[in-house]
Amino acid sequence: MTRRQEILDTVSRVVAIPCCANKAAALLGDPEAELAELARIIEHDPGLTANLLKIVNASFFGGGKPMRTAGEAIRLLGTLQVLQFILSTGVAPSFVRRIGGYDLAPSMHLQHSVAVAMAARELGRVLGLDAPDYTFTAGLLAGVGKLLLGAYVQVDVKAILDLAMEQGLSFDRAEDAVLGINHAEVGGILLQSWGLPSEITEVVCHHLRPDEAPETDTVLDLVHIGNALAKMIGVGLGVDGLNYIPSATVIQRLGLTAGIVDRVCANVVDELRSVRHLFMECAEDACPV
Amino acid sequence: MALHIVTISDMKLSAAREDVVVTYSLGSCLGVTAHDPKAGVGGMVHCLLPHAGAAREKARANPFMFVNTGVAMMVRRLMDRGAEKRRLVFKAAGGANMRGDNLFNTGARNFEALGKLLERNSVTLSASDVGGTVPRTMFLHLDTGRVVVRSLGEEKDL
């Protein structure tokens, strides 16, 4: 079995993504808890969002309309009891505490994912694009493949890193060379197998190399640049650091300038401060990941 | 010993010899330390962007977001705590860029802004570890003014 097949085989057995459900679980036990606050927590956690979208897009709940944001899903479900079920299925017992290979503490991956989502959304706003709400979801889930490779597959990241450094490759190209697959593709395949809408899975799959996507897509462009901005801002960087190539085609298509990028980065850093308490709830000691 | 953590667009200083100031996860941002060995006071600022001109209202709310206003404000605060400008030892780390990025160039612009600011004030940068695509963590040890940069699991003195 090739390394790629081995990874895909593992991905097919993953039933839930690691998440930080502590605060959400505490709220569920509080009769005074606001549904809006619960939604806010879920919206900022890639594991909870992915698990939730998996459930609501399954045939049991399916009303035909694909659910693309945590908010839509929560409105559909409506009751705290059902949400409790989702949270309980979202926290598998065997999760490792750290994303070992990628040198990411759980709260670091969470912060990075939120920063990508915020940067993609904010970029759309600053550019005056009428980007759909699921831009945030796609950004939040873009790095989910890294979480999977780190948590379920024993990836030797040093080999990937060494190859990238020696041959001057971007990190995803080095992943391809060592693993036969990169973390963007892994994430896209997992979410596709869970029945998430193709608008999201395609973005996740191609967010590192949008030029290879079958067609152009504004959400993909925004998430691609949002991912780069989150890395430049430096939130939750792993060993892969800033070793990814921003697409010149996307930069041109969006009409980006250094001034626009600076403004977006400044706004994202301010916005990150407003959700800082969520990250604190997912500190390593408290997190099941 | 107290560990003072500097977040993005933030500054911390200390005059306690046993203290350490640290900033984690520097990407394109620039970490700048200034230490007065005689007064025993030092600080670190973590700047996101080169110039306050990018968003003036944000600079008024938080000068540490920008290199030109953040480093100047840190020096002012250190002088309030007894440092003398001519004795300050400046070091910098961070300023990485995305691979092959010729447009955003935020890391390089941040370092260039620091260079211009220091030059205008006739100050020399003692040491730096900037550029590339790697993330960095920067430590300032108040006892000696020693600055350590950690990247990809390896540490080195600046």
Describe the structure concisely for a colleague:
Chain A is an all-alpha fold. Chain A contains 17 helices and no strands.
Structure, explained:
The complex is a heterodimer of chains A (289) and B (158). In chain A, helix 1 runs parallel beside helix 12 and helix 9 (144-152) packs across helix 12. Chain A has helices spanning 3-12, 22-28, 35-43, 46-57, 70-77, 80-90, 106-126, 134-141, 144-152, 157-167, 171-179, 183-193, 198-206, 218-233, 248-254, 258-274, 276-281. Residues 91-99 and 284-289 of chain A have low confidence and may be disordered. The longest helix of chain A has 21 residues, at 106-126. Chain A is built from 17 helices and no strands. Helices cover 63% and strands 0% of the residues of chain A. Chain A is mainly alpha-helical and 289 residues long. Chain A is globular. The two termini of chain B are 22 Å apart. Chain B has one domain (3-153): 60s Ribosomal Protein L30, Chain: A, CATH 3.30.1330. In chain B, helix 2 (67-80) crosses helix 3. In chain B, helix 3 (106-120) links the parallel strand 6 and strand 7. Chain B has 158 residues and is of the alpha+beta class. Helices cover 22% and strands 35% of the residues of chain B. Chain B has helices at residues 56-61, 67-80, 106-120, and strands spanning 3-5, 10-14, 20-26, 30-36, 41-47, 89-94, 125-130, 136-141, 147-151, 154-157. The relative contact order of chain B is 0.21. In chain B, the strands form 2 sheets. Chain B has a 5-stranded mixed β-sheet with strand order 1-3-8-9-10, with no helix packed on it. A 5-stranded mixed β-sheet of chain B has the order 2-5-4-6-7, covered by helices on one side. The model of chain B has no long low-confidence stretch (mean pLDDT 94). Chain B is built from 3 helices and 10 strands. The A-B interface holds A 103, 108, 161, 170, 228, 231-239, 241-246, 251, 256-259, 261-263, 265-266, 269-270, 272 and B 8-9, 25-29, 48-49, 54-55, 58, 65, 94, 96-101, 103-107, 109, 133-135, 152-153.
